[in-house]
Each structure stands twice: as structure tokens, then as C-alpha cells.
Amino acid sequence: MRGEPLSGIDKDEITLGVLDAVHGNSALSQRSLSRELGIALGLTNAYLKRCVRKGLVKVSQTPPNRYAYFLTPKGFSEKSRLTAGYLKRSFEFYRDARGELEGVFRHCVAQGWGRAGLSGAGELAEVAVLCAMLQRVDVVGIIDPRLDEAQFMGIAVVAAFDDLGAIDALVITDLRRPQAVYESALAVMPAARIFAPKLLKVAPAGGRPKEAGR
Predict the structure, then answer these.
(1) How many domains does the chain have?
(2) Structural domain for 163, as ranges
């Protein structure tokens, strides 16, 4: 629930993150909340003020010059509503992504392609890794220059396409900038071997990406 929004800035998800954090720790600072949510301090402040204005959060000053935040009854109710919506969206995302990515790796098997790379770590990459395992396709690496960790789900994380080594197919799993990732991939790999799940809404640019499940 603290991860990236599925597309752009998901206002409900950020609000839910604020309410969750306040519920878990009334003495949290705006700076620590900003780090926890992964958003700018100014945006954190704006969302907190919005929650206070809507009567979801109550704020009280505690010496020396510190503030404590508490969920109101209305805040608890809104937290429950947003949680239900988040879980529904997450289930739909997983169901749709799994269906498409299973099709991708079945296609790879049919073509005799046993080595695949992913571009982008995160929720979609998690689904892709699991689907690849079921189809016995080897995911040899994940391109994600933003990630500090050396591995993601036990798979090597690399900074650039050239670091992957030889692969038969590339699956775009970047939720933040899938179009740019696709266009960059076209410069180093045939379009027929680049797969983009339809939920990413990648548009053709010099070559049509192979849609997941096709």
C-alpha cells in the first residue's frame, strides 16, 4: 500500500497512506510521513491539511512545538472505505496482469525463447516473475536504474539493457514510464520481441509492441 500508485498520483491511495500512518503513529512528523509515502514534503503537508479540513484527522499541539495527529470517527470510516477500494483495485490489477503475462510466457515457450528480461521493478514485475516460473521461462535480469538493491525477488537488478546479457524477449513492467521504456527498447531489440501488457497503454512508436497474451 506504500508502493507506487498504479498510474500517476493516485489521490485515494495517498489519502489512505496518510490515514494508515496516522492510525499507526499519532506522533509521526511530516518529514517521516513524507519518506514513508515516497512523496514530496509539500505534498505530504497538503494532504494532511486536506484530511484535517475534511474532518478525517484531528491535530493537537504538544510541547515543545510538536504536533500529534489522531483519526476521527469519520477518519476511521473513510480509512475502511478506501481500504476496500484499494483491495478491489489490487485484485483486478493482479488478475488482469496475470492473464496477460501468462500469455506472454506461453508465447515465449512456443517460440523456443527461454531467456527473458524485464524492464521495471515493482508490482507488475512481481507478477511477471511468478508467471515466468510457471511457464519455465528464465527471467535473467530486471532493468531498473532507480532501484538501489542488487536483487528483486531473487533476480539480478541491472542499470541498463546491455547489462542483461543475451535475452530472447523483453517484457515491460515499468508502471511509471512504460512508453519511454518501450521507445528505448526499440533501439536495441526488434518490436516483435518486446511485450507490453495492455494495462500499460503503450502506444506504437516506429513499431508496435507485442501485446501481452497475444
Answers:
(1) 2
(2) 94-211
